[in-house]
Amino acid sequence: MPACYEASRCAEAGMDRIDTVLKAVPEDLVTTDQDVVARYLTDFRKYMTGASRAVLRPRTTEDVRRIVALCAEHGVPLVPQGGNTSYCAAATPGVAGDELVLSLERLNAIREVDAPNLSLTAEAGCVLSVLQETADAAGLMLPLDLGSRQSCQIGGNLSTNAGGVSVLKYGMARDLVLGLEAVLPDGQLLDVLQPLRKNNTGYDVKQLLLGAEGTLGIITAVSLKLVRKSVQTVTAFLAIPEIDALTQILARAQAYTGECITSFEYVSDHSLRMLLAARSELRHPLTAPNPHYVLLEAQTASPVFPLEDAVSQLLEQLMEEGLVTDGTLASGGAQRDALWVLREHIPEAEVANGGSVKHDVSVTTSRLPAFVKEASALVEDHSEGGRLSIYGHVGDGNVHFNVVAPVGAVPATYKAWFEREVSPRIYDLAVAMGGSFGAEYGIGRVKLDLLDRYGNPAKIALMRAIKTAVDPKNILNPGKVVR
Amino acid sequence: MPACYEASRCAEAGMDRIDTVLKAVPEDLVTTDQDVVARYLTDFRKYMTGASRAVLRPRTTEDVRRIVALCAEHGVPLVPQGGNTSYCAAATPGVAGDELVLSLERLNAIREVDAPNLSLTAEAGCVLSVLQETADAAGLMLPLDLGSRQSCQIGGNLSTNAGGVSVLKYGMARDLVLGLEAVLPDGQLLDVLQPLRKNNTGYDVKQLLLGAEGTLGIITAVSLKLVRKSVQTVTAFLAIPEIDALTQILARAQAYTGECITSFEYVSDHSLRMLLAARSELRHPLTAPNPHYVLLEAQTASPVFPLEDAVSQLLEQLMEEGLVTDGTLASGGAQRDALWVLREHIPEAEVANGGSVKHDVSVTTSRLPAFVKEASALVEDHSEGGRLSIYGHVGDGNVHFNVVAPVGAVPATYKAWFEREVSPRIYDLAVAMGGSFGAEYGIGRVKLDLLDRYGNPAKIALMRAIKTAVDPKNILNPGKVVR
Predict the structure, then answer these.
(1) How far is Cα A202 from Cα B216, in angstroms, rounded to an integer?
(2) Number of A–B residue contacts, CB under 8 Å
(3) Among A39, A317, A480, B421, which one has the highest count of C-beta atoms within 10 angstroms of its own C-beta?
(4) Nearest to A403 by CA among A431, A420, A383, A428
(5) What are the pLDDT digits (tens) for A51-71?
(6) Rg value, chain A, Cα
């Protein structure tokens, strides 16, 4: 029997199975209108456009449970999707059209705010900024924060173990999870949602779903840690003559303010120039350009800690010693927002220049300056005029080491060439320095080759064993994270 | 063929397999002297004494790898053991004698202190206090701290996801892990040891080994987060007339000091009286007895935060409002130690009274006062004179709700009766209130029945699927955590 016949027969059988599932799901949860479906088929960075007969939009955990059970029964793969802000196409279906998109957007109830317990329980489809506002209204703070806060959803944040701008003080998304509710690949409900700070009762299975990008279960709800609300915020934008001084400045800042430092973000002069050129209404915050900048933010819930004085004194000391050469301070409000724009809108400036090849690298903070210098030299030697755009969460050892096409080059062509010819050298360097090729974006579909190349073999084998054991029919987000 | 013959044949075959393994392991790593072996066979709380032909004491990760590979090949189960301080007999072999004890005590090298990166890499057999001292010598602090710090080992701390007295500010042992090295049940080396704060590259498999009590792999080394050293410590011992006020006091303390609160420990008057009676050299720290006490500790790395003033002002406010009726402050040194003795030596006082039935319960902090009141009433109604000893990490919602035999009763008999007749009511109450029957001690061998009774079925099924996939021959710590 010719293989092509087999394949078409299988494809037809696949369609039959999808039909069976679609007929069994309540009509109001199914969208087959391809104009609507199309919105769910392209990833945020426009790497790829997949295909799907329908988008399923459950309203409740029980809806999700039934859908997954049906798909498990009929062998129909599901691609879970939150706010669709993955940088690695982790929520985009394949091109074959044999998968269904499962959007969690309608699971957006806030189930409980328990203020004395410092916890918030909410469903997977809640937009991050909504949860931040909910915590704020309760007099508390949800410390998870990242650039896409207005559109990303908490289920996606957890499935990718999101990082962001407050990791230094509060940790990654994983560190903020007290409890989890999820539907497993066989349709069973995993209910470990209690917002308990201590619960050592067997394997902490929820950890397995955090960062698994929807391949081991569908997160439907979460109990998150809240913290006391900051009543004082001091933000500084500093000019740093030598990148080697970064770790020393961070250490001094943390020691002097007692770990009030919430953010310690690096901005290269390359990136700042690109942003100021792209957004003519923005002003340089300092009197003269410098090779390196740091956006430092200190926050405290204490009304009695003299935070602004402490940060001012710290800066004076750092300037006396020459570690910092210039700086400006903002205490909240519009001034603070203006400084944050200079950090958070860099990706937009890259897009305005044709987009960037992104390298989301982490190393130890002790090696970060050396990495930036060596990787920059490498780009200078090999990139044929590519423009560096380096910024990121250097307090966590995480740098977005990006490269924009030279002026005049066709960005798409240049980026493809760079990814093939130069990016491997950058990743080799990071890994040789004990670092990681993927700090906070995850693997998705885009970084599978990198995981094969750099991942510890025992880890990859263990990942496969777990995936096979938990999702033997491979129905949850196939082709992502694990092969 | 009679079953007994089968069994004895199997037992003999088991002995043959053990012989094969023991002959293949280098002699200097094997101890068969039963006088020495005996030290490894009884658990800390003396629940049980197991049997083992030998104790294996590897010196390197490669030794561990070879031993596990040999045991996998020949089907010989291993019981990993650290400082043997488990409260749940998690490191004690069974009575059949068909398991070998694997002590990690000789894997005690400190591999690296990376001060700028705030990390410490050390082997599994390092005693916790040694690691604390190592961090201190580097001008930093390892914030994991618990009563058994002088004897527990870091591998055991991680395998049980230890809690302790600093969880409120710094989290559980899990939260302090940056990287892990472990030997998997097939002898493969899992090397994800890099001390990176961000590394989202596939499933975070190390999470699975943390808290798995040695059933999924043998932890051989860990990279831990360090923090800036506290330069100010203020400790307070407070009298609280109403237990309901606990959460309010904690909230006020955290808000006023900006989350400097490291410890918020409860001591009941029952426990304090028992301790003062058992240790005549100790003095009551306040002028008069009270039903409830809190040991509160605030710490900061900042030299400029007026911490002592802040805590004093806070106490004045709380006393004016009647939430606190009496209190004493210590700023470090011997005064501080004297207050901590009143909290940390309570277990000794229980032992001096014949030991206690321990219920290591957690609930949300919002429900903790209600739990203590209801559970106390329940003991009063059903315990036939049992003496309450309640204390613990109430800032984390974790209370050690213990019961000591009445004066005059035979402790062993009474405790067995209580565990059978009354303990289930206490656990039922905790779980009905959304809490956990096991906050920080783990499951081990002792709490398997409780996990069956209270665990989410999907969670238990998932645990079994994972154990079967990762350790198909069931050679790592069989009979613990999962059946």
Answers:
(1) 12
(2) 314
(3) A480
(4) A383
(5) 999 999 999 999 999 999 999
(6) 23
**A243: buried, middle or exposed (CB in 10 Å: 19+, 13-18, 0-12)?**
buried
User: Is position B465 within any domain?
Assistant: no
CA dihedral A76→A80→A86→A88, nearest 10 degrees, is -20
**For residue B161, what is the nearest residue in chain A, using CA coordinates?**
A200
Structural domain boundaries, residue A333: 232-347
Q: Out of A201, A363, A398, whose CB is closest to B451?
A: A201
Q: Name the closest residue on chain B to residue A460, using Cα atoms.
A: B202
Q: Are A106 and A127 in contact (CB under 8 A)?
A: no
What CATH number corresponds to the domain at position A161?
3.30.465.10
| Residue B175 DSSP label | G
Last residue of a domain, one of A326, A347, A368: A347
What residue in A sits closest to B162 (Cα-Cα)? A200
Q: The CATH number of the domain where B324 resides is what? A: 3.30.70.2190
Decide: B326 and B363 in contact? Cβ < 8 Å: no
Q: How many separate domains does chain B show?
A: 4
Query: CATH code at B90?
Result: 3.30.43.10
Statement to judge: residues A60 and A37 lie in one domain:
yes
Residues of A in contact with B437 (CB under 8 A): 201
- The answer to whether the CB of B300 falls within 8 A of the CB of B232 is yes
Rounded Cα–Cα distance for residues B214 and B222 (Å): 14
Q: Give me the pLDDT at residue B6, please.
A: 47
> Within the 86-145 window of chain B, which residues sit less than 8 Å (CB to CB) from chain A?
114-119
Task: Tell whether A216 and A120 lie within a shared domain.
Answer: yes
User: Could you give the residue ranges of the DSSP H alpha helices within B258-300?
Assistant: 269-278
Say whether pLDDT at B11 is over 90. Answer: no
Token code pair at residue B241: 């007339």
Token pair recorded at residue A480: 């992502």
In our burial notation (b when 16+ CB lie closer than 10 A, e otherwise), range B385-416 reads ebbbbbbbbbbbbbbbbbbbbeeebebeebbe
Q: Tell me the CATH number at B365.
A: 3.30.70.2740
In a domain, B460, yes or no: no
Co-location of B410 and B359 in the same domain: yes
Which residue in B141, B170, B197 has the most chain A C-beta atoms within 10 A of its own C-beta, making it the best mutation to test that interface? B197
Looking at the structure, tell me whether residues B318 and B334 fall in a common domain. yes
Query: Edge to edge, what strands does the sheet with B218-225 contain?
Result: B110-114, B119-123, B218-225, B177-183, B189-192
DSSP letter string, A67-93: HHHHHHHHT--EEEESS---SS-TT--
- Going B368 to B369 to B370 to B371, the CA torsion angle's sign is positive
User: Looking at the domain assignment, is residue A449 inside a domain?
Assistant: no
User: In 3D, which of B445, B482, B468 has the Cα closest to residue B185?
Assistant: B468
Q: Tens of pLDDT along A295-340?
A: 999 999 999 999 999 999 999 999 999 999 999 999 878 999 999 9
At which of A103, A120, A144 does a domain end? Answer: A103
Residues 198-217 of B with CB under 8 A from A: 198-205, 207-208, 210-212, 216
If asked whether residues A136 and A203 sit together in one domain, one would say yes
ipTM of the complex: 0.95
Instruction: Please indicate, yes or no, if residue B307 is contained in any of the structural domains.
Output: yes
Question: Are residues A11 and A67 both part of a single domain?
Answer: yes
The residues near A287 (Cβ < 8 Å, ≥ 6 apart) are A326
In this structure, are A262 and A307 located in the same domain? Answer: yes
Which residues 390-429 on chain B approach chain A with CB closer than 8 angstroms?
Answer: 393, 396-398
Residue A277 CA, chain-centre distance (Å), reads 27
Instruction: Report the residue of B200, B232, B261 to disrupt the A interface, i.e. the one with the largest count of A CBs within 10 Å.
Output: B200
Could you tell me if B114 and B217 lie in one domain? yes
Model confidence at B2: pLDDT above 60: no
